[in-house]
Design goal:
heterodimer, B: four-stranded antiparallel beta sheet, 3 helices
């Protein structure tokens, strides 16, 4: 029996935007969830997805994806592949598992919100598939990470991380609560499917798969690639939403993209940047973080938003300069505050690695080299204590990451500067001008308290390093440390010591 | 390429055949292939298409076009899916076509 083609019947089952007779439309689609704003309600009737899929097709295709991902996993489970992976690469996966597993669950809630409050039947239909996708991602990520707990307790943070008050997680919760949980569905569709999933997730799920495969982690490469095939589809809720919003309220469309783009760029600098440029073994790096950003974000994503009639964000120059700075500063911060991490951050600054960094980032030696030299000399003088933190870094009130971005002054020197503003009786400090501007424009938003705010308010007791680590949920078996000090310091053994390390040793 | 569009394919056994099918279905378009190991970008200017019919020639008579999704980790442009084909189109071209259709 010949089946009808999808095009011949999909409209009947999908387009269920009937007129209500017992209640008002606004009771079913309240503004605070739907956020139509200046867009006339009827304008949403033009919402149409290009990437169409029916439920039977969806189920059959998802079954194939799951079967394939789990087949690879069970084949590799019996091998010794995992035991031979580089510690740096394992750290990239631990960071991914802990940082991502429950964000996928938050994305389930976001898709469910669009599946209920989306302003067109076609949109709600796509979001229904989207929430099933995200449920799969939450499950597959948690399950794949769980496998390794017996071998390494840090993998326990796959499921645990998001339930703790670790500073990395507070930062991610702050970003994703703002992007996925709080917004109305119009803003949500622009922030999550369009900006985050069409743009940034490709870095962590497609580009990083290249490094994974090169590093021999076929299982991980396969899992993240499988996840991203779902994202490629449901991220298409963004385009039709943006088209309608740009037509009626381009100022809002631009602001929503600008804000989500900046927040994503900061988070990816902290996580994907170090994973690509420091944790992935040198011989396995496909491209630098900057090159991947150029490919996926600068070329592809920016081209897309310009085609929709929007501009590059106002902070573009600051963002572009940050591509050479942010993730290197954050890498140094992650390494220095390593007891606060659930992975083993690799320093990645042996002579060969530094030569690679200097080739990819011409200013690297000038801005970061001498700071690493101090750490190296202290390690080589057996003075590890001097390389461990005794104080806390200032955390930015917008992105919650350490304020550690060097900028160049007119006289050529590089300094980490403080961007601050006064609001509601207190002074807020920020890592960048962009974070400061976003905070001010969005100041009525509910912002999480940074770990430092909590510390200063006396919420963390006792007020010492032990108290802080305890508050963050870190136990000695999980606490991060460098996996191999010798690997990156042995090149420099015996060289004359100068500067701060000399002072520290005397 | 000014407006490159097309799929980003994940590593799988079928990549070469899929590229061949895309080349067959777009005889007048230069198809650029960028291989990054775990993923391969396949792109053409403004618009490219691949049909179930051609894919079946390369991948077997039982290949369903919906399964293309299992190989496509990302794409550039808008992806338009029908029962017989997938077309990737630049946003600009898509907008112009929609406008022409409504006027």
């Amino acid at each position: 029996m010949a089946l009808l083609k999808r095009e011949e019947w999909q409209g009947f089952v999908r387009d269920v935007d009937w007129s209500y007779s017992y209640v008002d439309d606004s009771a079913v689609f309240p503004e605070w969830h739907c956020g139509t704003g200046k867009v006339p309600r009827e304008a949403w009737s033009a919402w149409e997805e290009d990437y169409k899929v029916s439920y039977p097709e969806y189920v059959a295709t998802q079954r194939e994806k799951e079967a394939s991902a789990y087949a690879v996993k069970s084949a590799l489970q019996r091998s010794t592949t995992f035991d031979h992976l580089d510690e740096g690469w394992k750290s990239a996966t631990k960071m991914h598992f802990g940082g991502v597993a429950l964000v996928e669950y938050a994305a389930v809630l976001a898709e469910l919100k669009m599946a209920r409050f989306g302003l067109n039947g076609a949109w709600r239909n796509m979001a229904t598939f989207g929430q099933l996708d995200e449920l799969r991602h939450a499950q597959i990520t948690t399950f794949f990470g769980h496998e390794f707990i017996g071998k390494d307790a840090q993998y326990d943070w796959t499921q645990k991380a998001f339930h703790t008050n670790d500073w990395v997680l507070i930062s991610l919760r702050n970003l994703f609560d703002g992007m996925m949980i709080a917004p109305n569905v119009v803003d949500l569709a622009i922030e999550l499917p369009l900006t985050f999933e069409t743009g940034f997730t490709n870095l962590q799920f497609v580009a990083l798969a290249s490094d994974a495969l090169e590093s021999g982690d076929v299982n991980f490469a396969n899992m993240i690639s499988s996840i991203q095939t779902d994202e490629a589809r449901h991220s298409q809720q963004g385009g039709p939403t943006l088209e309608i919003l740009v037509e009626h309220d381009p100022v809002r469309a631009q602001w929503v993209i600008d804000k989500a783009f900046w927040g994503s760029a900061r988070a990816f600098a902290a996580l994907t940047g170090p994973a690509m440029d420091y944790y992935t073994p040198l011989e396995h790096r496909k491209q630098s973080y900057r090159e991947f950003m150029e490919e996926w974000i600068i070329d592809q994503f920016v081209h897309t938003i310009e085609e929709y009639g929007l501009k590059k964000p106002w902070y573009w120059d600051e963002f572009m300069r940050g591509l050479d700075i942010w993730h290197h500063g954050l890498q140094m911060g992650l390494w220095y505050w390593r007891p606060t991490l659930w992975w083993r951050p690799k320093a990645g600054v042996s002579k060969d690695e530094r030569a690679w960094l200097a080739e990819k980032y011409p200013n690297w030696e000038k801005v970061f080299g001498d700071k690493w030299d101090v750490l190296i000399d202290n390690v080589n003088a057996n003075n590890l204590e001097a390389t461990l933190p005794e104080t806390l870094p200032w955390l930015c009130s917008t992105c919650h990451l350490p304020a550690c971005n060097a900028t160049q002054s007119r006289d050529g020197t590089w300094r980490v500067r403080d961007w601050s503003l006064q609001y509601d009786g207190r002074t807020y400090h920020f890592c960048t001008n962009g974070c400061r501007q976003i905070f001010w424009k969005d100041r009525d938003n509910v912002n999480h308290q940074t770990l430092i705010d909590r510390f200063l308010a006396g919420q963390i007791q006792p007020m010492d390093v032990g108290g802080i680590l305890g508050y963050m949920g870190l136990t000695p078996d999980v606490m991060g440390d460098d996996p191999d000090y010798e690997a990156w310091t042995k090149d420099y053994v015996g060289r004359p010591v100068e500067g701060i390390s000399l002072a520290a040793q005397s | 390429m000014k407006n490159p569009v097309g799929p980003v394919l994940s590593m799988c056994d079928e990549v070469e055949q899929v590229i061949a099918a895309i080349e067959d279905d777009n005889p007048g378009t230069d198809i650029e292939v960028i291989d990054r190991g775990a993923y391969v970008r396949v792109q053409g200017e403004n618009e490219i298409t691949v049909t179930q019919q051609t894919l079946r020639r390369y991948l077997g008579a039982d290949f369903e076009i919906r399964s293309f999704e299992t190989m496509m980790t990302a794409f550039n442009g808008r992806a338009i899916t029908t029962s017989d084909a997938i077309t990737w189109q630049s946003v600009g071209l898509r907008k112009a076509e929609k406008k022409a259709a409504t006027s």
